[in-house]
Amino acid sequence: MSxxxxxxxxxxxxxxxxxxxxxxxxxxxxxxxxxGVVRGIHKSEADKTAAxxxxxxxTVKTATAHxxxxxxxxxxxxxxxxxxxxxxxxQINGQVVAxxxxxxxMVHRGDPLIEIDxxxxxxxxxxxxxxxxxxKGLLAQAEMDQARYKEAFDQQAIAAQTYEDQKQLVEQDRGxxxxxTGAVEYAQVQLSYCHLTSPINGRVGLRLIDPGNTVFSGGxxxxxxxxxLQPITVVxxxxxxxxxxxxDQILHRTGLTVDAFDRSQQTKLATGKLLTLDNQxxxxxxxxxxxxxxxxxxxxxxxxxxxNARLLVKTLTNAVLIPTAGVQHNGTQAFVYVVSGNTVHIRxxxxxxxENGMAAVTGLNAEETVPITGFDKLQDGSKIxxxxxxxxxxxxxxxx
Length: 400
Description:
alpha+beta; four-stranded antiparallel β-sheet; Elongation Factor Tu (Ef-tu), domain 3; six-stranded antiparallel beta barrel; 6 helices; CATH 2.40.50.100; 400 residues
């Protein structure tokens, strides 16, 4: 057999082996390429992860709970209400001849305010006094006649009827004198209405009348308004739910302290005492009206001024106290973050009362520590750094 014939008749087994090795080579190259791509992806992800810094651990200020005394207050909205407000009206007709006060002046009881022309009423008084004087003379004459008639009757010189008539005439004259006396007193009262004086201590309002104006009895407009400012009261509404404990304190002691604050509740205006409370609950609001009295020596309380009243009901002793800044609210529920090592945990508490930046709470023990800043970065289980501490946790150091 020739060489060409031998080549034509190569066994099929050798060709199959060559194809198999070719595929193995291709698969090996593909595997190498895929492995390289996967390693590149993993390395890229690792680089990105390494590039992202861990979240910073917040640094917060803290405070330690302690026991102490604090006032338990009932707070309510109130209105400054004068003890007395007097509107003076004219009770006679006449012309105003003088005004003795200045707008906004502080006046005292009995100080002159307004003068009305007294001449017509002085003349009426003189007439009444003249009539009285005349009728007193007639009465005196009738009494002398009665004495003579009695002496004559005792001697049976006149008839009994004559004596009895004289007695009745004397009684008539006495009645006339009494009527005249009343007329004189009435004229004196009318004359007194010409001189208007202040019935209370207080401040007069804006000027409402001027000299030369004519005033009339029964007019609808007052001539002057006087408001008492010292002392002054605040009327405030307390919820009926607080009535029981307030009433118990009133029954056991007197002089509950009331503080009046301005609209912003930042400035204390005055301190006074609880004066009284209303005798019924307002069903439309479910509140009871209380009245506190204030000396108002510096005149910081002004009639009809809106204030925030704070009634001291009792003093809590051995209460757990923390700064009010540490108390957070979730709706109506109060809670705090309690520090344990370098971790905080949420704990629900009850806030009893607050005073001067401190809050009395239950659900927290004395000597426990709570954060008072940085709440926007805190949640249950958060790691923290405490301001002022030199030591740092390892994770805190790694994050810096």
